[in-house]
Amino acid sequence: MVLLRKLLLAVPVLLLIPLITLMASNHGKTPSSTAQVKSASLDQAQASFVRPGITVKVVSASIAKDGTITARVNIADPKGVPLDANGMNTPGPVTLRFIAAIIPAGQTQWLAYTTTTLKSTINNNPPQVQAGTDSGGKLTTNADGDYTYTFNTKAPAGFDVAATHGIGVSAQRNLSEFMEYDEWSETANDVFYFVPNGSPVKTTRDVVATAACNQCHNPLFGHGGSRIKVELCVMCHTPQTVNPDTKLTMDMPVLIHKLHMGADLPSVKAGTPYRIWHRGAWSDFSTVAFPQDTRNCTTCHSGGTAQADNWKTNPNRAACGACHDNVNFDTGENHVGLPQFNDHQCKNCHTPVAESDFDASIPGAHVIPNNSATLPGIVTKVLKVDNAVPGSAPVVTFQVTNKAGDPVDISKLTQIRVVLGGPNVDYQYGPAGMRVSEDPSKAPGSNGVYTYTMTGKLPAAAAGSYTVSIQARNTVTLLPGTLKAVDATDAAKPVQFYFSVDKSAVVVRRAVVSTEKCAACHSDLKFIHGAARGETQMCVICHNPTLVDSTLKQSVNFAWQIHSIHRGENLTNPYMLGSTNYQEVRFPGDLRVCTTCHLAGTYNPDAVGAVAPISSPGGWTQTTMPIAAACQGCHDDKITASHALAMTNTAGESCVACHGSKAEFSMDKVHSRTQ
Asked: 19: domain range?
């Protein structure tokens, strides 16, 4: 065993990725667990010995008449083998931290019993209450994996024995003796609901699912990785918790709304930063840019929880005022002049059901104009492409209707474009490739079907397959003639039509990422180019290997550009397009998880499929080979560029030899979260 431990110390380990499990709303049913992806660097014997990962489950809890709180908890590895918290009988000691709280009768949020009072470290503000974990309690071993914790904190005299109580636990396993890992990957959380008098649990706190957070954050983790579930976060981030240095509430609804509003907060726009002094430094959230419209409440409040509809059924001053922080509820300023001294009347005006877009209801007030269901809609379809031979101008027949199927007069649209690009193996400009965007709004047609002859001709050297894409949008005034009238962009989802120019089999442009994966963070891509190009297979036609920013000569090839934008603040050098510096972007997830954006396997160099060199006059070399270009979008330092250049010769790139899907330094290994 000693020899095996020493062996493991020298083995690089792949990231241990947690499988998100949603906590059941009924008490004590579902344990929180961290399921792992085994490292390819561990052989079966090593992996069987260490069994990375941890699960935790509170199986029972009670409060004695004198207020003594006890909880029984089980810890195990992902295969159910009990863990020794001391790390003597099983690999790695486990640290257990406990929270005790109550949901007082008639209320909906936790009130923690386990609190401390903290003084400011930067000013003379009065001390403030902070909910947190218990300290000084006693952990008793019943057996390996089975423990009883007796809290040092006691429930107050006269505590309500008929109210819902909760025990929250964070379990962290220390495997540093055996492997490298991110702390959150060896963490598990659980929350157990109970009523001290033995009555059934009827009240819970279950508003936002952890899975909703992990759409962008992948994974959610706080406080060094010990908090990975929203259900646990809300036990400390309660209305009673106040930051002593700023006197700002740390209540979860207020804190999270403000963090995600960031730069869009009215207070920030007016010049007051939103920042919190924490552990000796400022955390300034004033520059946070939410990656979609902040009116998309259901991005976070997305269902799967007991109180998923709270955002619209339970409006209150704290939650609403967190985003709308220019509203003064005491005076009525920015609230139609109506003061609100409590939350009792909020539901009277802000109802859960919209009568119309932009009304005072919660859903109506958060309607994004471009997403309004009252928009007529634009639906396009390419029916056929004729005269598609080299040296000739293709003739495109297409259809445009509204979402009800009625014909649309394209001459009255704000914009409609026919985009022709190719070849599909790699869109590009040059002797054998082209990209043109033309206005067909005057094309003849009837009943919504139009025939347009392109002015751009296919190159004489064109071969293989090409693509025609249609994009269209229209500016529409919603609620015209009313005080709520607002302009919206009614945009069609771009469509692509693939065709052969030489009678060879039609080749569809490879799919590397998906619009649906982008939507996990962005909701939709309508914020791009006037809302008319929100589809990744459309983007790559223009953002091809030969496209370069005219100002700073940066490559805007799709892979290079998107990697650079999302790498943002972690870039070595600024990635600028015009006056926009994308080094200010903060990616909310883990950049090592390529599948956040990529379709399975498409990030591997042996699956790239690209052949055209990338024009990169703003990079380290004037042109960059396609695999290297994708990598250098993130790894933009000179050493990486030099390495890629050294590994390229007249026969091409040799990346697959070392970084292929089955190679020693595959993407899955070098992008493991332990590196």
From this structure: 2-250
